[in-house]
Design brief:
Elements lengths: L8 H8 L18 E6 L3 H11 L4 E7 L3 H16 L11 E3 L2 H5 L6 E4 L7 H9 L3 E4 L7 H13 L4 E3 L10 H10 L6 E7 L20 H5 L32 H5 L1 H11 L9 E3 L9 E3 L5 E14 L2 E6 L2 E5 L22 H11 L7 H20 L3 E4 L4 E2 L3 H5 L13
Parallel strand pairs: 1-2, 1-4, 2-3, 4-5, 5-6
Antiparallel strand pairs: 7-10, 8-9, 8-13, 9-10, 10-11, 11-12, 13-14
Helix pairs in contact: 2-3, 5-6, 6-12, 7-10, 10-12
């Protein structure tokens, strides 16, 4: 993982060095003992998180950042309207806006940041925020490459950062995924044999034509570390949008459908297999199809990319299927038998992913989807993509995070970033 493949401190210097390093125990010393938040990326997920945090009286949103002027200004007005309703005077103008995330990170009064950018812009802001001693909530999949995710873990650990990955299925959706994990790990379906994860296909090279860049969009900054190309509204919608943009399909910016929902469902599979700190040891792709790739774990369990949406756990004595709106078992009575004190039980972390992060910011404990967990879940998706791209069987060492005797595959663990984001 050559140092040229990723940025280091030089890029941050003009902004970060002007920010005093705040002690961890100072978190939550903003107005009314609130945690001061800054938002980086205000697209679909960013707006959803903004609305959720604006309804939480334990935080104060003090800044937003986006390369798109319309979305940036809309977010500022949402913040101002929400906080004006709390004030007797009925006015509020205290939310700042930025085009460059480094300026937001450089503010001394911000305790934590919420990163909801496209995937290729997750790692750099997260690492710089860690260096500035700001706690981080970063959307999934955690990173674009394996090298990036390890850098993110190292930065969080070095600076004692509370880092939550946006793997909301670990807390929300009626607790169905949590229930499935507890029953699987309690042995209620017998010895695990196979897991099937139904999500989209691998990422492909972007082949969109160029369009004129709209006024108010810093397209060069949107591209950032990715290869230079012209604007296209499929990647970055022109206005306030109500859909998830298709940048997710292209390897320059994301990991395809395999990594989009895969970062959620493979995360649950890893959880149920007790692999939060590890991963598979073999990647066996099909000859041509974009589904059917197999991950094999050291204990012999096979995980298939393909099947119905969600996760299907198949054991020697039964099956459990879980997705966001359903959980069922075969035979049906498996889920009808309550767990006992002798069964495996997960710690109670509540049913709100954002609140779990805030609680951990105050307690300094690790959240339910800690950065290491997010890195390993993203890694499964990245391994799957590499398997589909190369179309050959691969051996993987999850402890060393490298392919065994395959230089070509190992080169795909990282990528060359575009200047100036390639500095070290």
């Amino acid at each position: 993982m050559h140092r040229r493949h990723f940025l280091a401190s030089a890029i941050a210097t003009p902004f970060i060095l002007g920010s005093a390093i705040r002690a961890q125990e100072q978190r939550g010393q903003g107005p009314n003992n609130r945690i001061n938040l800054g938002f980086i990326g205000i697209g679909m997920m960013g707006r959803g998180h903004l609305g959720g945090f604006l309804g939480n009286r334990s935080v104060q949103v003090v800044a937003v950042c986006d390369v798109h002027r319309i979305r940036r200004e809309d977010a500022v007005e949402r913040v101002h309207r929400a906080y004006a309703q709390e004030r007797k005077a009925g006015t509020y103008r205290g939310c700042a806006s930025y085009v460059d995330f480094r300026e937001l990170i450089g503010r001394r009064d911000i305790d934590a940041v919420v990163i909801s950018t496209p995937d290729h812009w997750h790692a750099i802001p997260a690492i710089l925020a860690c260096r500035a001693r700001k706690d981080v909530y970063c959307e999934k999949p955690l990173s674009l490459t394996i090298a990036e995710s390890r850098q993110m873990v190292q930065a969080a650990r070095q600076h004692n950062i509370v880092f939550q990955t946006g793997s909301q299925q670990r807390t929300e959706f009626g607790g169905r995924f949590r229930q499935a994990v507890e029953y699987v790990r309690s042995g209620r379906i017998g010895r695990m044999r196979t897991v099937r994860v139904g999500v989209g296909g691998p990422a492909r090279t972007c082949d969109l034509p160029n369009q004129d860049t709209p006024d108010g969009v810093d397209w060069n900054l949107w591209n950032g570390p990715s290869p230079e190309r012209g604007f296209h509204e499929v990647l970055c919608p022109r206005n306030i949008h109500t859909h998830f943009p298709a940048f997710r399909n292209y390897k320059e910016y994301a990991g395809g459908g395999l990594a989009d929902m895969g970062a959620h469902h493979f995360d649950i599979a890893q959880w149920a297999l007790d692999m939060d700190n590890s991963g598979p040891t073999q990647i066996l792709p099909p000859e041509r199809a974009e589904t059917g790739l197999r991950f094999v774990y050291a204990n012999g369990v096979e995980m298939f990319h393909g099947g119905p949406s969600g996760c299907t756990f198949e054991g020697t004595e039964g099956t459990i299927y879980v997705d966001r709106g359903v959980i069922r078992s075969t035979p049906a009575n498996i889920l009808m038998q309550p767990l006992t004190d002798r069964d495996f039980r997960l710690p109670d972390v509540g049913n709100n992913h954002r609140q779990n992060w805030l609680d951990c910011i105050r307690s300094r404990r690790r959240p339910v989807a800690d950065v290491e967990i997010g890195a390993r879940s993203a890694q499964v998706c990245q391994l799957g993509n590499i398997g589909y791209w190369l179309r050959r069987n691969l051996r993987w060492d999850p402890a060393r995070e490298e392919f065994v005797d395959n230089a070509e595959a190992n080169r795909l663990r990282s990528r060359e970033n575009r200047a100036p984001w390639d500095r070290s």
